[in-house]
Amino acid sequence: TINFIAPLPKWDTEKPFNLAWPLPADQPKINSIYDKHEVQIADGRGREGEFSLDLHGFAFAKMSAKDSLRSKEAIQTEYVAQVESWLKQFLGAEKVVAFDFAVGPLTFKRSSSQRLKNDNSINQTLEAALSRLRLYFDGETESLVNGRVRFINVWRSLIEPLEDTPLAVMDAQSLAAEDLMAHDIVYPHHLGENYLVKFNSNHRWYYLSRMTTEECILIKNLDSELHESARMCPHAGFEDANTPPKAPWRKSVEVRLIVFN
């Protein structure tokens, strides 16, 4: 199952939001409402080479990184730079800059109510991407956007094999513009925006079964090339009916990068 933003009349007059700072207990941080849907998710194992960022919006790849995954500190000081260098070579890019990273739960001591959410989304809208470029590259933005700009996530499991809550990615060719709903992420000093996704039976989903720590998934969140068929790729964790009962709960790391050409 995957969560999709519910198609409610309230969205005609109200925009979904997430307030990303501490609030009083009686003040809502979010107003989004989701529906769960059962979806068919095809296994890309054995077909890894069939998928590409430009055609599907995602790709499966291998990148050795065990030594730099030993701790959150090593991830921050070593792994992020390693991903920057690797992705630059992998894509033949002129410049790659990591602007954020996220490490999934670093402990298995979670209650059943703390299981990972299966909401699916796209991390950036065009306006949010331009805002982020101005935030990080003040004075360079105009020259940078003259070329191709891509926002790409590199996601990998920190345990192997990964069996609990694998990551699913949608074939971008099956995504329609009307499936997207803009969603505000409000920080104390910055307004972000991403896309939530409405359910559509035409969507095609994929995952990579039993991922190892040597494998990663590349996810395109935005591409400035308007003619590309795959400009963005929704993604979400999902509840896999084949997960063994005692499978360790998922731990993962995701590096978010801007790719310039």
From TrEMBL:
Domain of life: Eukaryota
Residues spanning the membrane: none
InterPro entries according to UniProt: AsaB-like
GO MF annotations, alphabetized: oxidoreductase activity
Name of the featured protein: Methyltransferase
Protein family membership: Belongs to the asaB hydroxylase/desaturase family.
